[in-house]
Fold this sequence. Notes:
11% strand; 39% helix; alpha/beta
Amino acid sequence: MNDKPSAKDQNARAGVEQTVEKQREIQREQDRKEPAESGGGEKKGAVQTGLRPYPDELPAQHLQKPGLEADMQLKPQFYAPDYRGSGKLKGMVALITGGDSGIGRAVAVLYAREGADVAIVYLTSHEDAEETKRYVEKEGRQCLLIPGDVKDSKFCKEAVEKTVQEFDRLDILVNNAAFQQHAHSLEDITDERLNETLHTNINGYFYMARAALPHLKQGASIINTGSVVGLKGSKELLDYSATKGAIHAFTMSLASSLIEKGIRVNAVAPGPVWTPLNPADRSAEEIVEFGKQTEFKRPAQPEELSPAYVFLASPVCASYITGIVLPVTGSIGT
């Protein structure tokens, strides 16, 4: 048997590595422009409303892109030990992009707890993806790992086909993969940087939805990850905010397009959430203040977001809901 990778596989891997290096170069360029110090604000205790306390003090850590959850000093809380499954997604199959870590991992675990098998698309964070797979299998469900770049429409089509081949169906698509790098000025955003953000955050959503659509039947759903910055804007996330606003509009438009087929399309708009995306975006000095501008005075943990994705995916919970952008922002009025 010839185990040598095909030219097609070699080209795909080369493309993924080029994407990672491109994102790291964007990060290095921004790091060089950072001020020497970041001013802090008055320290106030975080608001706690859950069954267990969540951290309000974050470590001063800066991660290399794309960010590995395994390398985080303070590990995000994703397991939701107090959440009890009740078969809301029994027999379903979900495909989650960016499912290796952060919100995607938390969603994968709860989907499995609710009875769904899960396919995970991710870029290169193999260690994180394997950890997510272990937790999905711990819930008694199957997990398929599919590494690749959502900027590539052919890869997106192949990812959907692999999922259907493995599980014989597809019921839920969660578009969650994202690229983010802050900038202090519009002039800092080069064409290359703009294209990386647009193509990952918008094109990737279009490509995955288009590839999934032939396999989605009545009762299926698509859930897109938007953002509070798509609702309110952000002076230091100009390109990222623009993509998230576009995702919200795409959600409502696609919901109108697919309603006659019995397919629902919704979005979740998170506020600040403690995931690898953030310490890979901000400097060590800045990240310690992450999330403190919310009424909760702390970032959310991924397990505080994942139940919203269960709710929107489940026909027994949200059969009459489509075209909404559900804010889970930690702030009043958004």
